Structures are given as C-alpha cells and as structure tokens.
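Exam revision sheet. Question 4 asks you to relate a sequence to its structure. Input first:
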Amino acid sequence: MDDHGRGSGPRPTDTGGDPLEPAPLDPGTPDPLPYEGVWRFTAQAVDASVPQARHAVRDLLYRQGVPVSDDLVQGLLLIVSELVTNAVRHAALLSPMLAVEVAVGAEWVRVSVEDNHPYRPTALETDHSGEGGRGLLLVREITREAGGVCDAEHTSAGGKVIWAALPLKAVRAS
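Answer key, structure tokens:
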C-alpha cells in the first residue's frame, strides 16, 4: 500500500510575506489535537488489499494516539474491510486502483474508500440464500449503532467514494 498521507501539521497559507517565515495563528482558532489529520492510502483492487487496508487503518489509529475504544476500532475495521472488498469485487474491472482515506477530527473519525467505477452501489435486502450482497447493510448498521452517518458520493473524476463517519467517545480507563 502506498502511503500518501497528509499529517496533522499546519497547512501553508499565502500571507504575502516571507514564505520562510511562519504565518501567525489566528488567536481564536484552537490548536489541532495531536491525533487530528487526514491520511490516504492507495492500493491495487485485489483481494490482498483488504487485510492490508484493515491493518493500515488500525496501525494509523494507534500510531496517532486516536482515543478510540476497542469496539469502535473493530467497527471501523469491519467497515473498511467491507468497503474495500466491495471495490475489489465490483469495481476492479474499471478501477484497478482504490484509495482508503482516514480523517480524524476532535470528535469523529471518518473512513472512506474511493474507486473509479461510476455506479453507486445499493444495499441489498437480506437474502439468506446468497453468500454476499449484505456488506453495505452491515456498514450502515455498524455506523447507525455507533451514532454515525454513512453515504456514497460521486467524485469529480467520475468515480465514487463511500464513507462512514463515527463519533469518538471518551474512552473509560479500566
């Protein structure tokens, strides 16, 4: 997996002054928390990318010190697995590459998977006779139970991005 991450450091702004001199911070803007940021990984749309994406997201959350409960991590990893699996199974022909993005704010974490296939998926109703087709229902249910939101959107390049945003809750010390 290629890591094209953008960390939580400040973004450059054009102040018209010396580009080597740091821009003054707006005193009304709170400093970002150490774990806030956006990271993006790209991978081939192949089966091996499913566990790679899951491990990359898990490692990122722990490395950045994101205050997530074990339950929330497990839910996020299941969402990533389902979304990457869908991209591999249903979009690989038109989209040999996919992207996984993790965005962490002060009170939420959002995972998304983007591919270049133009069709938005629809969640299938439960069919106990089939082996597949319920991944998006599972994503929607995990997201709902965590108090989050999920959606699919078209990209400007003609593909789609499917995302789920879950609230961070205070982790109780045991």
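Marking note for examiners. The mean pLDDT is 82.
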